[in-house]
Every structure is written in structure tokens, then in C-alpha cells.
């Protein structure tokens, strides 16, 4: 499974958050695309429309388990996808910004 560290991500890298709605609303990385894993197959087209055609899709969840499943699925579909190791927990611990649904300071649920 292709994996990257939070520290390897640059500002503007395409980030797909697959956590559920309550987790997203509490806090997420600003600019990330949100498609919950529970809706992922039905909403797959949203990803293919939003993802950069020649870029990498960085998949993130709370700790890395759900995002690993989605990243593996995307790789099987021919998409250049990687799992973000440690997920939003590591993202927040590294001091990366976390915003809530209103754009204010958020937290990882």
C-alpha cells in the first residue's frame, strides 16, 4: 500500500477525506474533498471530477485504516493514490491547520 507521511504533504496537494460527516464537521484539513467511506462508491464520480488528472490523490481518515482501504481501491482503478499515514490525528499533532464546518478552528473527532 503506497503511504506518505503528513510531513511529506505540501500546501495545495490534493487531499481526500473519507471520514464520516460528524468527524468532518468537527475538524478537517482546509481545502480537502470530503466523501465519506460509507458513500464512496456511490459518489466516486465526484472524486474523478475533482482530482487532478496527472496528480496524486492523498487519502486521509482519522488514523489511517479507512483511508488505506480507499487508497487501495483507487489504485486498483488506476488512480495514483496514497494513504496518509496516521491520518488526521497525526495531521493535527504536527500542527497542521484543522477547521470545522464553519471554517473556524476545529478538532479531530
Record keyword descriptors for this entry.
109 residues, 5-stranded parallel sheet, 14% strand, 5 strands, single chain, alpha/beta
What does this structure look like?
With 109 residues, this protein is an alpha/beta fold. 29% of the residues lie in helices and 14% in strands. A five-stranded parallel beta sheet has the order 1-5-4-2-3. It is globular and about 35 Å long.
Major sheet attributes: 5 strands, parallel
Q: What separation lies between the terminal Cα atoms?
A: 25 Å
From the spread of the alpha carbons, the general shape counts as: globular
Our count of helices gives: 4
Quote the average pLDDT. Answer: 96
Low-confidence stretches: none
Main-sheet strand order equals 1-5-4-2-3
DSSP, total strands: 5
Helical content class: 25-40%
Strand-pairing-aware structural class: alpha/beta
Please state the CA-atom Rg, rounded to the nearest Å: 13 Å
What percent strand? 5-15%
**What is the element string, with H for helices and E for strands?**
EEHEHEHEH
Write the topology of this structure.
Layout lengths: L2 E2 L10 E3 L3 H6 L6 E2 L9 H7 L6 E4 L4 H12 L4 E4 L2 H7 L16
Parallel strand pairs: 1-5, 2-3, 2-4, 4-5
In short:
This protein is of the alpha/beta class. The chain has helices at residues 21-26, 44-50, 65-76, 87-93; strands spanning 3-4, 15-17, 33-34, 57-60, 81-84.
Amino acid at each position: 500500500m503506497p503511504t506518505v507521511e503528513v510531513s511529506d504533504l505540501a500546501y495545495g496537494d490534493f487531499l481526500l477525506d473519507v471520514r464520516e460527516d460528524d468527524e468532518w464537521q468537527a475538524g478537517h484539513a482546509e481545502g480537502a474533498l470530503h466523501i465519506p467511506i460509507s458513500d464512496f462508491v456511490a459518489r466516486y464520480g465526484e472524486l474523478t471530477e475533482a482530482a487532478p488528472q496527472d496528480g496524486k490523490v492523498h487519502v486521509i481518515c482519522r488514523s489511517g485504516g479507512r483511508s488505506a482501504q480507499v487508497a487501495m481501491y483507487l489504485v486498483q482503478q488506476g488512480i495514483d493514490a496514497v494513504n496518509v499515514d496516521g491520518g488526521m490525528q497525526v495531521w493535527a499533532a504536527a500542527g497542521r491547520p484543522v477547521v470545522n464546518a464553519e471554517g473556524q478552528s476545529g478538532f479531530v473527532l
